[in-house]
Amino acid sequence: MTQVPGPPPANQLLIGLARLGQAVRMEAWRNAGPHNLSPLQADIVTLLQSKPRPVRQGEIVEALASTPPTVSDAVKVLRKKELLEATRDPGDARAQLLGLTEAGRAEAGRLTAQSETLTGALGALSGPDFAAMLRGTTTLMRELQDRRAIPVSQMCLTCRFFVPRAHPEETGRPHHCNYVDAPFGDAELRVSCPDHETA
Ligand code: SF4
Description:
globular; binds iron/sulfur cluster; alpha+beta; 7 helices; three-stranded antiparallel sheet; 199 residues; 2 domains
């Protein structure tokens, strides 16, 4: 059989993933808004909006799979921009809790509206393609986390509430989340879940 010429398929996949990452990052920079937010600053504002109460900086580091110095720098800038405020943690006098100011909540509302370019492009995927891509993405992330190549994310595959293949495949929702006690399919796998608890 004639071989397809060129680099091996793994290279092609890696090049494709790099291009996608580039597109997501570029959209984040384009969406810097009135406060000229970096992608990480925008992620922090969006994350804090999803939390019912202010959180410690360490929780932000964990949720965004980042590092303490990187998050610390971004938090300092956000406080200067008056989008974020710190209060004393009643449970530990030495610790601080971080939450959004009123301006921060307004900015979070703006950021929550997804980029039309990205959502439009995702709309080109069929249901099965979307599910397969999410499944492949979580598998790769898990593998890279195990190899310590990327920080740990709050995703289903590392969550103590996740029960894979708990239901028949034919149902289309073979997995089970014990947190909400409900079945779900590959298309609903989470890579960033506020209810995640490490297995
Ligand atoms: S709590 Fe969140 S991360 Fe955990 S299994 Fe349920 S949906 Fe997935």
